[in-house]
Amino acid sequence: MAGAQPGVHALQLKPVCVSDSLKKGTKFVKWDDDSTIVTPIILRTDPQGFFFYWTDQNKETELLDLSLVKDARCGKHAKAPKDPKLRELLDVGNIGHLEQRMITVVYGPDLVNISHLNLVAFQEEVAKEWTNEVFSLATNLLAQNMSRDAFLEKAYTKLKLQVTPEGRIPLKNIYRLFSADRKRVETALEACSLPSSRNDSIPQEDFTPDVYRVFLNNLCPRPEIDNIFSEFGAKSKPYLTVDQMMDFINLKQRDPRLNEILYPPLKQEQVQVLIEKYEPNSSLAKKGQMSVDGFMRYLSGEENGVVSPEKLDLNEDMSQPLSHYFINSSHNTYLTAGQLAGNSSVEMYRQVLLSGCRCVELDCWKGRTAEEEPVITHGFTMTTEISFKEVIEAIAECAFKTSPFPILLSFENHVDSPKQQAKMAEYCRLIFGDALLMEPLEKYPLESGVPLPSPMDLMYKILVKNKKKSHKSSEGSGKKKLSEQASNTYSDSSSVFEPSSPGAGEADTESDDDDDDDDCKKSSMDEGTAGSEAMATEEMSNLVNYIQPVKFESFEIP
């Protein structure tokens, strides 16, 4: 990784920065859905932004790894207590509306197995500040791709936070943290002149960062680094000189395929800076010498991460037509498990969007309740149903929290009710508001030869991919006319649609509505599959512009 200096691409990513208010701590009230007990706590974040932790009135400390945090929500998007008694307890003696003071931190090891930490601040401004700060720390790309040394520092920070009321570090925490080989942990502790019994504890002052490094070196010896160190000129001397270190970086580490003008080899002055940064012995560092300990620290440092920071940052050209890109997409987005009998969840739409997905799938079906609300599910299976409206609200909430680039809503529309399709279109318009792209951009009309707009042009926009109602001739019929859609008429010869029998509901006296029903209700050739989609009504068609589902013909360019 060394040698690829950030000269070509100016890094836009910002390092972790924890505000003073988070480090100092703030009073909150913690509550849980399963109980009517509320717990006053003081919530803090460690200076490096690895954890946020809280202490209750009994001085007991709990912590949450910020790398597990998926989202932080406040106000109307946070969870609210359902129990009236609990609401009353949380609202007593506080300033401001309860809803605006609520925070929900969503965390978990993956997108499906998530939990919630529910908090109430004493002031609305505090709730907003903590929500924004926690979300910023949790989604920091540099923090998510830390160096080996940073991860070891994180483990040390965890041990220092999980102390007894007397301020001592329980050895059982060390054994739990390094659980692969208990005997090696015991030997490494003894090498540091520390007690090794699992039931013992040690004072914090006896477990300094230097002692921790000695412990790690004994726990995980690195003989291969000693061999490299010797290979580059330190066979007779316990250090590398500036020139020897420069040879290692430029000849051993640097990719020879790199352009030497864009990615020049390091010079002596730059290598000296690295030696002063990583060499723990200041007298050696001043003389331009690096010990094996400093060499190991350098190899574990940020200059030698698995992924270069420039690759984490946006470094691609995003001004090309939309069709020139692969799009991070999700299939059966709503499912938390198998597609035959798995549960569907609105939360999945939040989670995939927060993880960077830019195209989600909505399998829409006609709701069969009295309210006639459309639902999302996997058709002809035992998967559960979720509300279409709630999904649209979830998408609106999280669409652009982690990325400004456009969202594509891939509709698989099986709703054969014009009334419910009209509801779907109305929900999209009202909930998405100006974010919904209703008309083609002025610079990119839907005309032959005009390219699609780029992701940059479509930033913060939501696009609907759905079938579009075909233009029909008005000869001999009283059907409604659609405006000419020159390049947007949908036809898909891969699906066969036949008019279905009239429904058992009340007949509509208006011929227009009868015609809409005939157009909308289509049946599948094989009723055991979900292969056939309903024809789009005019309301849904009006949401479609740049993207439609079409049958694949070939890779040949016409």
Tell me what you see in this structure:
The chain is of the alpha+beta class. It has four domains: 20-145, PH-domain like, CATH 2.30.29.240; 163-219, no CATH class; 223-310, Recoverin, domain 1 (Orthogonal Bundle); 322-465, TIM Barrel, CATH 3.20.20.190. 31% of the residues lie in helices and 13% in strands. It is built from 19 helices and 16 strands. It has helices spanning 20-24, 84-91, 124-138, 141-144, 148-161, 171-177, 182-191, 209-219, 223-231, 242-253, 268-278, 282-286, 292-299, 309-312, 347-354, 388-398, 418-432, 511-520, 538-541; strands spanning 26-31, 38-45, 51-55, 61-65, 69-74, 102-107, 115-121, 168-170, 201-203, 359-365, 375-376, 386-387, 407-413, 462-465, 498-499, 522-523. It has a seven-stranded antiparallel sheet. β1 (26-31) and β2 form a beta hairpin. α16 runs parallel beside α17. The two termini are 44 Å apart. Residues 1-7, 473-512 and 522-530 have low confidence and may be disordered.
List the helices and strands and how they pair.
Layout (H helix, E strand, L loop, with lengths): L19 H5 L1 E6 L6 E8 L5 E5 L5 E5 L3 E6 L9 H8 L10 E6 L7 E7 L2 H15 L2 H4 L3 H14 L6 E3 H7 L4 H10 L9 E3 L5 H11 L3 H9 L10 H12 L14 H11 L3 H5 L5 H8 L9 H4 L34 H8 L4 E7 L9 E2 L9 E2 H11 L8 E7 L4 H15 L29 E4 L32 E2 L11 H10 L1 E2 L14 H4 L17
Parallel strand pairs: 10-13, 13-14
Antiparallel strand pairs: 1-2, 1-7, 2-3, 3-4, 5-6, 6-7, 8-9, 10-11, 11-12, 15-16
Helix pairs in contact: 7-8, 10-11, 11-13, 15-16, 16-17
Question: Can you tell me the number of structural domains?
Answer: 4
Question: What CATH architecture of the largest domain would you give?
Answer: Alpha-Beta Barrel
From the N-terminal CA to the C-terminal CA, the straight-line distance is 44 Å
Please bin the fraction of helical residues. 25-40%
